[in-house]
Amino acid sequence: MKTNKTLLSLAVACSLVSTSAAVNAAGFQLAEYSATGLGRAYAGEAAMADNASAQWRNPAMLTYLEGTQVSVGAIYVDPNVSIDGTTTFKNNEISSESKDFAHNAIIPNLYISHKYSDKFALGFALGTNYGMETDLGRDFAAANHGNQASVYSVEANFNAAYKLNDSISLGGGVRFIKADGSFGAVTPPQTGAAAGTTLKYMEGEDTAWAWQVGSAWQINESNRIGFTYKSEVDLTLEGYATGLGFLLPQGSKKDGSMDLALPATAELASFHQLNDKVAVHASINWTDWSSFKELVADFPGEKSNTIKEENWEDNYRFAIGSTYQFDSKIQLRTGIAYDTSAVSEEHRTATIPETDRLWLSLGAGYEWSENLTFDAGFTYIFAKDAQMQENRVKGTLPMTDPSDFGGEFEGEVTGSIWLVGVQANYKF
Length: 428
What we know:
Elements: H1 7-13, H2 35-38, E1 68-89, E2 92-98, E3 105-115, E4 120-127, E5 131-135, E6 148-163, E7 168-186, E8 198-220, E9 223-230, E10 233-242, E11 254-262, E12 265-273, E13 278-287, E14 294-298, E15 305-309, E16 315-325, E17 330-339, E18 357-367, E19 372-390, E20 408-427
C-alpha cells in the first residue's frame, strides 16, 4: 500500500472482517473528530461552536468563532472485540474464535478558523472519517471468510461561512479524501496441507472530492438549531488482486478496481442555554447506508464480477448531552448516544458484524488563559452482541464461495471500546 484508499470500504467490499466498525460508529464511520465533542457523546454538534473544530460537523458555525483560532488534538481508541462460533466443514463442527483482534489506534486532528468580518469566515480542517485494522490470525477456523483488514484515510476540508442576518448563518466547503486499504482471506487450518493458501487478497488506493453544506438558526439568545449535510463520496479503488478466488496461481496478481460510494450523511442538532451555568444539546444523525447494496470487482478487459450482496439499510444516531459551567475556568460535559445498526439480522455476517451501540461520555474543558483552553473527553461504548453467519455466497466470480475452502461459519461477535481524547485550543 502506498498512498490512500478507503480501506475500510475496500475491506468490506471484498468481504473481509471489519469487526472494529461494529463497536465504533455505524458502518465504516469514525465519529471521533474532537475531544471537545467526545466528552458529550457528540450530542448537538451541528449547533455547537466551542472552537475551530466546530466546522467539521457544520461549516456554518464558523461565523460564531471570533478572531483566528487553532485547535489540535488526538483521540486514543482501544477496541476490545472478540468472535466466537462454529465452522461446519465436511460434516465436522470446528470451534472458531479470535480474541481482541481489533487494533488500537490514535486519531489526530487539526482545525483552523479565521473570521474576516462580522459576516464572513473561513476555515480549514484535517481529520478522518474512516479507519480500522483487524487481524484474526491465520489460525482462525473461519479465515476463509476473511482474516485481516486495514484502512487508513485522511480528509481535508476547506470551508467558508456567511452570516445573512442576526439569526441565519450558512456555510459550505469542499472535501478532499485520500485513503489506502487492504483485505485478505486464506484457507484455515482444517484444510490440512492447503492451510494458509491465499483465497483473496486485494489492496488499492484512491482520492476523491466531495462537498458539505450547513446552516444555523439562532432562534433567540439562548436557543439555536443547526443542520448539516455531507455528500456521497465516489471512489474507484485501484490496485491489484491475488488469490485462488480470482483464478490466480499463488504468487501471481493482476490489476483491478472497485467502485464504492461512501454514503451521504445529515445531522439536525439543537443547543439550549437553560441558565448561566447549564446548557443541553441534542442531535439526530442519518446515514444513507441503504445505497450499499452490493460490491462489484472490475478487471481490465474482463466482465465485471459481483463479489458480494450486502443489502444494508439506513442508520440513525440519537444523542443528548449537557454542559455545566462549574466556574470561570472549568466546564464539565456529559452525554449519551445510541447508534442503530446498518444491517438487519437477516443480512448480518461475520465479515461485517454491524450492531447497535450505546455511548456513555464524560468530559471537561479548562481555560488556562484568555487565549488558551484545553479539553479532555472519555467515552465507553457498549456494543450489542451480534449473531452472524457466513454460508454459501451469491456471486459471479469463479471459486469465490468460501464455504468450499474451509466450511460455513455461524457465531457471535461481542465487543466494547474505550475512547480517550485531549485537545488544545488557541485564539489569536
